[in-house]
Amino acid sequence: MGARWNGQQLAQFVFGYSTPQSALNKLNQIEMEPEAARGQAAFEHRLQAFARGTQDDFRDIPLDLDHLTVFQRNVIGLCRRIGFGRTLSYGELARRAGRPGAARAVGNTMACNRFPLIVPCHRVVGANGLLGGYSGTRGIEMKRELLGREGWQY
Fold it and tell me: Is the full-model pTM beyond 0.90?
């Protein structure tokens, strides 16, 4: 796992890499401010607990969303509200974001998600019941594994 912080806001998060160095290589390197280190330690403990099976929605983690459009920020916010063990279709997420018919734009937003797990894009699936895509490590296999942890059988 690796995380990059922008002050007190999480700027990027990656997971599923075989070594710490490979996770770090994936991150865009920036200098971390001292106050971010304290937040990072608490976040690290929560991630370790999550990896052991503890449920955590991470909704209280502030995110740096400056790189996103207003629509994309809305989609990210709505995605963060999808509860453990639940899924929404790309189309339904688009409808809730106020843009019915923009399922592809939602998919593009999920594909560029810098915060997997924190923004649970693995819970966004196709309307036809198919998983859709997953841009994280191991692709659709990882999405299936994450959903399996939440009780889904795909």
Answer: no
